[in-house]
Amino acid sequence: MALVKSGWLWRQSSILRRWKRNWFVLYLDGSFVYYHDETQRDMDGRIHIKYSCRDVRTGRECRDVQPPEGKSRDCLLTVVLRDGSKTTLCAESEDDAVAWKMAVLEAKSTPVRLHPPKQGHRPGTGFRQGLGGAPGVTHVIVREDPYRVSGDQMALGLLAGAATGAALGSFMWMPCWF
């Protein structure tokens, strides 16, 4: 998926309220993913901005939140979710917090259409020319997020898990019959 913004943010844990530094990546499809570090190998969590985000607050709007040591309250950023929960973040500067807020709001409101690659396109090139339209227009190829799970995949996984559990459960009763 097309990248909107990425960078380091401090994230406050929901239970102990401790601050932890994570590498955040915001995609155009509304996936707001955070990782342990910038290698993006170990995903710590994800927020679906398009579906879950109700509001984004910065600075003084983030009431009852103490920023990490050495940071100003103006660097705070709170993503309010539809279920009533909040994700509290802290940027490196006030300008960075405002930039993240604008990027999240842009990703929330931008419609995304995914088109399958056409013949003649070389994967990994990132751009496609000659698709029609005005001269000089460059078309960007957007890939789906590799961590995205569709409803069909999840339902199939749950069904397979239930069948495996039932099969293993029936084996546990076999010794009682002998």
UniProtKB/TrEMBL annotation:
GO biological process: regulation of cell differentiation
GO terms under cellular component: membrane
InterPro entries cross-referenced by the UniProt entry: PH-like_dom_sf, PH_domain, PLEKHB1/2
SUPFAM superfamilies the record matches: PH domain-like (SSF50729)
Transmembrane portions of the chain: 155-174
Keywords noted in UniProt: Membrane, Transmembrane, Transmembrane helix
Subcellular localization, as worded in the UniProt entry: Membrane
PH domain span: 2-109
Name recorded for this polypeptide: PKHB1 protein
